[in-house]
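Extended Data, panel c. Modelled sequence:
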Amino acid sequence: MEHEVFVPVTADRLQQVLNDPEQVAGAVPGLQRDAEESASPLSGRLKVRVGGHAITYRGAARVAPRGDGSFAIEGEGVEVRGGGTVKLSLTVRLESAEEGDAGTRLVFAGTGAGEGRVTEASPQAVEGAVRRLLERFAEGLGRAAEPEPAAPEPEPVEVASVFETDVPPSSFDAEDEDDVEEILVPPAEAAHARRTMIGRSAEEVDHAPPRGRYAPAPAAESLSSSATLRWAAPAAAVVLASAIVAGRVLRRRR
């Protein structure tokens, strides 16, 4: 019999696949390869459907290049359940498609013989099963021969220049120094600090406790050291406020 299958792959690529037993084994539809490491890549179990029969064969095949550029395929198998056998001898010829068609025609030609359950089917059913098997085998060779897709190039990452980046304005300008002082020192405390420092020396301001409504209550002798610290914190705040106000006055006089 003869059978022809068109594959949209170049003949050179198909030749490379047919010269690699591993890729040929991967193209055989439904092949369950033997697990032994020493086994041939094209050995194992293959289930075929012939008419109303599903027959599983255990066997092996060989692929060898010929001098004219074609390939020879020899295979045999034994029924897993039964004593029937099959043998197949094929040649595969690669022909470039006509101009304008990017692909190759695989032309199969050969003979086969069988015994056992396969003989229970009609010759037409056997021929149809073989043609389907060859078509699927040719499609598998074509998939194996397709070039691997090129890895996509990474998209360039845009990095903004420091000159293109919006720089937020400074929170404070030199003209806002007076405002900073006003924020740091509440108006009521600043006014009180001015009143308390008038007529008093720097030494008195530094060491004397605040007077008026801010003066601390007399400490009892039984109070702990923590009670003494209750008026020390307000005094320190007044001293700090006085220093800030004094600095502001000196700057304005300059």
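Residues 225-253 form the longest helix (29 residues). This feature is highlighted in the accompanying rendering.
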